[in-house]
Amino acid sequence: MDNGEDTVGAADHFKVIMFSDVVAYGKEHPVDFPVVTADTPYTLCYTSGTTGDPKGAIITHGGMLSCLAALKFSDFKWTTTDRHLSYLPLAHIYERAIYNCCAFEGGSIGVFGGNVKLLT
């Protein structure tokens, strides 16, 4: 992957690698998946500190899966044609749960990156 031929638009601080090269590298250098349990940390969710000091809350795999199960088995049925307009920061656990649900069901996510007052 370092032969220089597979880079497009390279600069001193980065280079673009063809996806096919990433796949080939993965096949040549396989790694074992880690053992994950319900209590294994999945992510950190940082609070804004509205009611106190800001802090990071550990979200476990079991916690996220229970959230996704609640969404999956709710009255709302996700499909591959669903679109989610993301405007909350990914620090919000709700936003991360919706991202995961969309990815799991094959929906699409559009990311809004401007002024939230202009969202409508």
Chain-wise SSE layout:
Elements: H1 19-28, E1 41-46, E2 56-60, H2 61-72, E3 83-86, H3 93-105, E4 108-111
Parallel strand pairs: 3-4
Antiparallel strand pairs: 1-2
Structural notes for this entry:
This protein has 120 residues and is α+β, with helices and mostly antiparallel strands. It has two domains: 31 residues, no CATH class; 82 residues, Rossmann fold. It contains three helices and four strands; from the N terminus they run αββαβαβ. The strands form two sheets. Strands 1-2 form a two-stranded antiparallel ribbon. It has a two-stranded parallel sheet with strand order 3-4. Helix 3 links the parallel strand 3 and strand 4. Helix 2 crosses helix 3. The radius of gyration is 19 Å and the shape is extended. The protein starts with 18 loop residues before the first helix and ends in a 9-residue tail after the last strand. The mean pLDDT is 82.
